[in-house]
Specification:
Layout lengths: L1 H11 L1 H11 L21 H9 L22 E3 L5 E4 L2 H4 L8 H8 L4 H5 L12 H7 L11 E5 L2 H19 L10 E5 L8 H4 L6 H4 L9 E2 L12 H24 L4 E6 L13 H13 L3 E5 L25 E4 L6 E5 L19 H16 L2 H22 L4 E7 L2 E6 L2 H13 L2 E2 L1 E3 L3 E4 L7 H18 L1
Parallel strand pairs: 2-12, 4-5, 4-6, 6-7, 7-8
Antiparallel strand pairs: 1-2, 3-9, 8-9, 10-11, 11-14, 13-14
Helix pairs in contact: 1-14, 2-16, 5-13, 7-13, 11-12, 14-16, 15-16
Bound molecules: pyridoxal-5'-phosphate (PLP).
Length: 477
């Protein structure tokens, strides 16, 4: 098709245009940023390796990439203990909202009035500080999804989902209370989904077998998630058929599990399946799914742990669906700094301690979040994300046309982008070579690379990335 041709044509000029852009673009558009990567060693460097050998106290040493110097890290750049400065397009598994050491956050932390919030971590469920309701209003409630006036804070993403599931079960049982006890209820999830690694969440996580190995699970229904063809606009007919097939299966499963005596109390879904390989579905798909949930009396839980916080170009990815009543529960964590979930009034548990743990979040994170939201508004960061997201996806289309043997299925919304690599071994090699050239990226799914920059990632950074990625790909040709 014409589009592909023009992409291919543009692709031939990429090297040139990138070189031009990185020379001509203003040095930096983020005040507290560095002006580019700077590499002294291969990563991990000697100091990282020595520290790694000393670090025998954790079960997770095998997962450690390298050790970091967070004092020296700034803006879009993560600095490691060997003095390597990398453009960070993975941002601590997508959890740094406005870059490292943002001056507004440093200022907030240096304010003596905030010291007691940092030093004393309360058991929020029983002894919250006086300013807690105000801080919630300033932070989480100021970005509450449409139709949701209540929020429950939690510590991490899994703990937010775990408690959101409980809230759905309690709500479901309250609708049809008969005998007390532990009922046979279920949550419907999707193939390729990731909702966390705790026991309940794990029962709805289906991204990689290793997460589930040896751990017992529930007999809960798992529906197919649409396998779409990209770019979406070129395959709308085929994709609509695929989505209709999945929706039909969802309804069949709901009926089947009701007949089995394990009715579906809730449906949980990510707006973009992230860990599972950046799988997208259309706004129509989500609107229909929302209607199916209503029709069958199931709560609808949208897991925005990875998509929430602005990198799709809207604060919540579900805003792209254009609905007044998008969900009954929306969970969050990562870029929101605190975990938790928003919910409708009906999903408020009827008695204290039914949804409860010791900390139930952390007020110091609400303090930081309120400031992060100020920065997002003041610096129009959602518009910036939309702008740099366009530059990023166009650059990926061009590279894909230039390296058809390596790259395929470029896709994204805002800067929440991904691209597939021909196989897992090539992906690993590309990730390591890019890192040694000063660009930090992450994988997802079987063979995708995902892009998860902070919200302060501008056009300028996109072009630095495209130049380096281009060099790395040329080595794999
Ligand atoms: C969509 C989604 N849900 C839940 C989780 C789990 O969050 P956490 O790792 O904070 O427990 C993640 C983590 O990556 C996620 O991407």
């Amino acid at each position: 098709p014409k589009n592909n041709l023009s992409r291919a044509k543009k692709g031939r000029n990429l090297q040139e245009s990138c070189r031009y852009v990185s020379k001509a673009a203003p040095k930096t558009q983020v005040e507290f940023d560095y002006d580019g990567p700077s590499m002294k060693t291969s990563v991990p460097g000697t100091r990282s390796q020595v520290t790694h050998k000393q670090h025998v106290y954790s079960q997770n040493v095998g997962a450690i990439n390298f050790f970091c110097n967070y004092d020296e890290s700034r803006g879009n750049y993560l600095v490691d203990v060997d003095g390597n400065r990398m453009l960070d397009i993975y941002t601590q598994i997508s959890s740094i909202p406005i870059g490292y050491n943002h001056p507004a956050l440093l200022k907030l932390m240096s304010n003596p009035n905030n010291l007691s919030t940092l030093v004393n971590r309360p058991a929020l469920g029983i002894l919250p500080p006086e300013n807690f309701p105000n801080k919630l209003t300033e932070s989480l409630l100021s970005v509450a999804p449409s139709g949701m006036g209540r929020v429950q804070t939690m510590a991490c993403g899994s703990c937010s989902n775990e408690n959101a599931y409980k809230a759905m079960f309690i709500w479901y049982r309250n609708k049809e209370r008969d005998v007390p006890g532990c009922p046979e209820l279920s949550i419907l999830s999707f193939m390729g989904a990731f909702h966390g690694r705790t026991m309940g969440c794990l029962a709805t996580t289906h991204s990689k077998a290793i997460h589930k190995l040896d751990v017992p699970s529930f007999d809960w229904p798992i529906a197919p998630f649409p396998k779409l063809q990209y770019p979406l606009e070129e395959f709308s007919r085929e994709n609509a058929q695929e989505e209709a097939r999945c929706l039909e299966e969802v309804e069949d499963l709901i009926v089947k599990w009701r007949q089995k005596g394990k009715p579906v109390a809730g449906i949980v879904i990510e707006p973009i399946q992230a860990e599972g390989g950046d799988n997208h579905a259309s706004p129509d798909f989500f609107r229909s799914l929302r209607n199916i949930a209503c029709k069958h009396g199931c709560a609808f839980h949208v897991d925005e742990v990875q998509t929430g916080g602005g990198n799709t170009g809207k604060f919540w990815a579900h805003e792209h669906w254009g609905m007044d009543d998008p969900a009954d529960i929306v969970s969050f964590s990562k870029k929101l700094l605190t975990g938790g979930y928003y919910h409708k009034d009906e999903l408020q548990a009827d008695k204290p301690y039914r949804i409860f743990n010791t900390w139930m979040g952390d007020p110091s994170k609400n303090l930081l979040l309120a400031e992060v939201l100020n920065v997002i508004r003041k610096e129009n960061l959602l518009e910036e994300v939309t702008r740099s997201g366009k530059a990023l996806i166009n650059g990926l289309y061009e590279l894909q046309a230039q390296y058809p043997g390596i790259l395929s299925r470029a896709r994204g919304q805002g800067t929440f982008c991904a691209i597939d690599i021909c196989d897992d071994a090539t992906r690993s090699s590309i990730l390591l070579k890019a890192r040694d050239k000063g660009v930090l990226l992450g994988g997802c799914g079987d063979r995708s690379i995902r892009f998860r920059p902070a919200l302060v990632f501008k056009d300028y950074h996109v072009h630095i990335f495209l130049n380096i990625f281009n060099e790395v790909l040329a080595q794999h040709k």
